[in-house]
Amino acid sequence: MSQKTPAVRVFGFTDIHWSERDERALEIAKAAQRQFKPDITVIGGDLLNCTAFSRHPKRILDEDDTYDYTTGELDPAAKFLDEVQANTERETVMLAGNHDEWFERWIRNTEGGLAFRSQLPSRYFPKGRENFKYISFSPRQDNRNCYYKLKNDVIVTHGWCAPKYAAQHHLDKARDVSVIFHHTHRFDHRAGTLFRDKRVIEAFSAGCLCKQVPMYAHNGAPTDWVLGFWVAFIGKRSWTGYPIPIKRYEAVLPDGTQIKG
User: Fold this and answer.
1) Which 3 state secondary structure label does DSSP give 152?
2) What are 222-244's pLDDT values in tens digits?
3) Could you give the count of Cα atoms lying within 13 Å of 20 in the half-sphere of its Cβ?
4) Neighbour-count burial for 21-44, b at 16+ CB within 10 Å, e otherwise
5) What domains lie within the chain, and their CATH numbers?
6) Alpha-carbon span 156 to 150, nearest angstrom
7) Average pLDDT of the chain?
8) Can you tell me the distance from the alpha carbon of 204 to that of 228, in angstroms, rounded to the nearest whole number?
9) Predicted TM-score (pTM) of this structure
């Protein structure tokens, strides 16, 4: 029998790394979000890149770095969130990633860092926003307890690990719930069935929205990073998630709508 109550529609943005974002891919994801008309939108973490704060957390921040971080990342990322919220019916959720956490760590560990508290992502992004939830990143227990619950047996997290078989690792750690994760920049999916109730549990990631030529050293080797985003339909008893790759700057939504960039 058909279910009259419509499923909750969820749209997920993968890792953007603002200063290293793939602008064309991000525009496709934004267009897809507008087309999808989600009830809930999830920013999967690493919205910011914060490279200046990655290796030298105890150094003194100079004016050039302040300018670059604020006008180059923080302010435009906030405008992006404005767009996202304008196209979201109920709630926008931002999961902080390890890169977003770098500035927070710098504030904690640097003499004089508290002067920049107003620029903390955890303060700056939620300020003045309604129907917005910010979930902090925690280095403890591999960020295990930092997630957003879509329903009792489906959670979304930035990510708990990044090995080659990350989906299986997340499935093992999640145990009896499904998990949508990010962080790895790879397109990955694993599923299994619980014997006690025949319930299918899944773990998947949908790639990233940053440049596919990483800012990290790969010595010219091909990258396994994939551009993409995800959508999900959350019903009362079940759910369906779709990791959607962006192939040659084109994506196809579950209803067949083609988004080109």
Assistant:
1) coil
2) 678 999 999 999 999 899 999 99
3) 18
4) bbeebbebbbbbbeebebbbbbbb
5) 8-260 (3.60.21.10)
6) 7
7) 88
8) 12
9) 0.90
